[in-house]
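Human: Respectfully, please carefully check these tokens:
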Amino acid sequence: MSVLPESALALLECLRRAHEHERRSGVLVPWANAVIESELPRLGADSMVWHYARLMPGDGRTELDADFLSVIVAAVPSALAQLSALDVPLVQLGCTSAGFVARPRHSTPVPAGMQLADAFDAILHTLKLLMVRRIALLTPYPGWIGQREVESFRATGVDVVTSAHLGVADGYRHIKRPQITGLLETLPMPLLQQADGIVLSCTGWPTLCLLAELEQSLGKPVVSSNLAMAVCGFSLHYPP
């Protein structure tokens, strides 16, 4: 498969074209996330059917903190059971921060024939396919979660050369385009130029509208959490 390493969108298009038949994938959606179900169908085009199960904390919380991530991960087994009757060999947890804070893939029992990944796994997988090892990281997260992600990337061998975080703990779907582009503009240009690619982490803020524009203006792959989940949905040999 010929992949254009300067474009994450081109990678996704190559993967879509490589499959003649419709594919199916499961997604576990944090209950207050209103963006995943908007962006994934557009990224999958007519080649992917997404089956969703929602993760709802018993206390109805929505604010992103360590307790929220713990209860989201605790809800994963029952959500997997909802999808166990479907032919979905890959189910992805649509919460990037849970992937690097709570590590659900390493602690959650998974039904036979089903594979569990999370959005952070998906980003790492996509960066590997794109041969990107140095990134600029943008997130909407509170500072401590953003820093935890920086450390988690570095622990996997991905160098975060610069990063910026909005410092927001809730209401990610209301984040506007100028807030994201403004966050990018805060990054020091010499460091941004050193990055091989840009990561827009978080499944809950609307970034799909920016991907093509940023790839063209920056001349680098731009990987969002939702785009990475789509890439993994089309990858035949996603690592267990």
